[in-house]
Amino acid sequence: MLYTELLRLWDESVQAVDVKDWKRALATLEQISEPTSRTFFNTASAHLALGQLDLAMRALHFCISKDERLAVGFFQRAAVMMQINRLEEALSDCIWAQKHMRGNVVIDYKQLGLRFKLYSWQVSYNAAAVYCRMGQWEQARDVLLLASQAGRGTNIDAALDSIAKKEVLAPLLVPEGVVFRPRKQDVEQLQQRDFLGKPKVDDESTKNYQLSQQLPSTLFTFTASFHLYQAAVCQEKL
């Protein structure tokens, strides 16, 4: 599939998202014959907006298979897993999201086209939300206490109060309508034609698209545990 064609469909789907026309967004995304991790993430976002959790989870599986280091993909899938009560898998995704934070307190996805910052404390918060659903209140508290070292005291304090009352925490997700967008300059260049009548999209964008098509050989399949989660967090703090 030509990058210019992918870019056109990607941009059209984002325009549909902006007016909350989720079905049109999905129909447009389905026309992309070689989806990327980012377009799969957007597909999942549209399914979530429609309340289609199983389809959202499936799209996130493909998203992660395209980019196995995409922390926000694991973060989002963990939240979906929680909502369909697949708790061990949700906790596993929290572990991998934390691992792929690579010791950063925050990852800003703006350069990749997603207007969202993923904080380490948010990943820990979702891990605590999983433990709440498992009835493991002490582990939930301990995860939050560990996360409090990274700041966001108000958020963590409120969550600790809820846990003390044995109130289950709601999972955090990337907000509705926040999706990966193509670069503005690339979209603008679609309207420009060189003397051969071909779209002018810079080589860097095409190269990045080609690299994104490389599939990893396997998907992560791990059984999560509290000790694994602590190890992942502590290791990144060293």
TrEMBL record:
SMART domains: TPR. Its main location: cytoplasm. Keywords: Cytoplasm, Repeat, SH3 domain, TPR repeat. The keyword Coiled coil does not apply. GO terms for biological process: superoxide anion generation. SUPFAM superfamilies: TPR-like (SSF48452). It is found in: Cytoplasm. GO terms for molecular function: superoxide-generating NADPH oxidase activator activity. GO terms for cellular component: cytoplasm. Belongs to the NCF2/NOXA1 family. PANTHER family: NADPH OXIDASE ACTIVATOR 1, NEUTROPHIL CYTOSOLIC FACTOR 2, NEUTROPHIL NADPH OXIDASE FACTOR 2. This is NADPH oxidase activator 1. It comes from Amphiprion percula (Orange clownfish).
